[in-house]
## 1
Amino acid sequence: AATATAPPRELPGARRDLRLPDEWWEWRGHRIRYQSAGGDAAGAGDEPAIVMVHGFGGNADHWVKNARAVAESTGRRVFTIDLLGYGYSDQPVPAESGGVNALYNFENWGAQLVDFAREVAGGPVLLVCNSVGGVAGLQAAVDGGDEAVRAVLCLNISLRGLNVRRQPPLVSKAVGVLQKVLRETPVGEFFYAQIAQPRALRNVLREAYADPATVDDDLVDRMLQPGLRPGSAAVFLDFISYSTGPLPEDLLEKLPKEKVMFGWGTKDPWELVDMGREYYADMVREFVELEGLGHCPMDEAPQIVNPLIERFVREY
């Protein structure tokens, strides 16, 4: 497995002094990075800890504007975690780990979160998740039950548009061909190398964030540096080939609706709020529209999302 390496030179406006210290946990033979804020020790007190879970291409540092603030306002222990393959967690090579999608899938990430709740966070946790991290969080809630997960707040959960059940047969076949080309030829590595550049990533983030002014050097640095590790391209190409597995509604059907809240930035260009409302508003306890925000509202507007997280914590 590829392990954490020293990060490349930071961008001029990076604020690494604001980031939480890295901690490490061994999980199924893999080294997992996490961070924590608040509390004297993992599992301290009777109230559940909070675990924040990033989305596709993200990492624990995506929660830098949330973790400390929520820990201080709620008095809870707050953890952020890198899912296997992301951030500075280990990046096992897919071809050596069972093949395509055998390792980087929601069942595996859900198991990682369940074990983290039990082994590190000290009991049932409250999960706060963004994008594909929301599907992993719901999977953890289904598989771990109340002993591992008290409740889940999903922010702009992934609709999983590449899932075969979201596509007409002809489109699905064409997508499958493209995925194979990207995964099995040099085209994929070349494509990844083009987007793993400061300027290109900044443009992607400006599309995802409704307010381009919030896409600064620090954000680009937080997202880019882990993506420059040697194993990152293989993880990226494996996940964009993941067209099976659960849709959010599959998992929500297995959970009491009272256990789940959704927040959704209304200006998300990738996961459209109208579709989210249509699919999920009746399947969750509360569907909160975050007016004018994009795909990663917790980072774009912590002054709006942190109070939502705090209310979620109080109510559960």
Note: The chain has a mean pLDDT of 90.
## 2
Amino acid sequence: MFRNRGGGRGRKKPSSSKKKEEIKRILVDLTEYKTTQCCGISYYNPFVQFYYYMRKMIIIYGWPLVFMIVSVMFGVKGAMIGLVGSSGLPYAQKYLKLSAIEMQKYGIVASFPWTVKPLIGMISDGVPIFGYNKRWYIAASSLIGSGAIYFIATYKFDRSNGLYYIAGLTLINAQVAIADLLTEGKYAEAMRYNPSHSASMVSYVWGNITLGGILATVLSYIALKDENYHLLFWMALPFAVQCFLTSASGLLPELRVKRSKKGEVVVDDDEDDDDD
């Protein structure tokens, strides 16, 4: 027979992680099914529901991941790529004198980063930068993408230097593809630990992408009405820069890793202890 060395007579004390999960469950229950009373009538107020929805997301997934998704999915994948995409064909026709068929060929080249997303994921998992698999990849790609947008917004293109324009679009697509892939990996991991609320995360992600796309459509209408294609890139620039700031500041929740003596990539124990 085995006995506990403590005086608990074989009773196990509930672990701190179980206590946290129980507290989380109670807090989430408090955010569900809230109705508003007015003149004796109960109804669902969309603003109140949105408040409780965001409160639930922050309780379950933590505010850093929730706001990082806004930065990437709303700011980059929704608004920024929407603004750049709206200017692609008309910009090329006006300044580069490219036909729709030629632009389609170059568009395939510019979308190349999306086809190598699995390779990017493998590299980021195997080769961490400063001990992080995701943070600095997103930050570096955002910095390069921001530079590409600034270059296109300020440079005067013609048919002789059209390849510079295509190269800029390729770098912009690289930013979106890398930020999308690595953020997706992190929230997919969080969904695995909270399967009962995974649908809320999917809705949240696509809601951000949709709202970002709507904002891009409104802003594009303002610029395209006057055929001011450079303005579209100036509008897209702040969305690219903010992603660099959020990723470089460590908003994406991620444990620091290091290489063991055998050359394997493992979680840094010191960093893990600090997080606890």
Note: Confidence is low (pLDDT under 50) at residues 1-14, 271-276.
